Amino acid sequence: MSFRLFIIYFFCMIGIFSQTTENWNKKGINALSQKDFLTAVDSFKKTLKDKPNDAFANYNLACTYSLLLAQCEDIESEVHIYHLIQEAIKSKPSYQKKLHTDSDFFILRGKYHFQKLSGKSKREILTSITWFGPSPGAYGPMDQFQFKEDGSFIYHKLDMTESNPIGKLEFTGRYKWINDSKLEIQFYDPSPMKEGGKNKNLRVNYSDGKLEIQGFDHSFTDDNDRCSA
């Protein structure tokens, strides 16, 4: 084969490859719009098999998995969704801003790692999500914290002493931000915990996606155990 024919063949193959990628992406987005999630997954995966860095396919496969997750369908793990989003942003940074408003990700909006991928700081994430305790039974998380931007917080705790329906106790307080890994909280009266009859400042260790609060025998995360409740 002459050099000239090789060049023609080379560019023809590029054209065919690009067209195939475009066709799979188009098929995937059409399936996604029709809520045919399995076809959408298959189509975007075929694009990524030949073009792993394709921003469009990475982003929309993440969207598809998020919608399946909202239905409690089995998917390749939540971590895999974050990996797809990260790859999409790496190839096309404008996707990071889109995360703030894209309704396909509504089920992940209350997740620490999703908020982090959207560009928020740890301090911003603290007040953007609800922090849940463990779910030992059928009633969901036994307690939870919600931190507000004005420095206050609300703590809810299941009242297991009541019968049908289970009651919920509410306590309020304030918190003090120290740094990206530490803060302090103090409950107002009445308080769920006192030492020597007085409320005290409680130390909080804030690691990636987890709060460990002095006086509590469990940690708090973004997981509300929704699908198993």
Automatic annotation (TrEMBL):
- Highest taxon above the source species: Bacteria
Q: Which InterPro entries match?
A: TPR-like_helical_dom_sf, TPR_rpt
Its keywords, alphabetically, are: TPR repeat
- What are the ranges of the TPR repeats? 21-54
Name-wise, this protein is: Tetratricopeptide repeat protein
Gene3D superfamilies according to UniProt: Tetratricopeptide repeat domain (1.25.40.10)
Q: Which organism is the protein's source?
A: Leptospira levettii
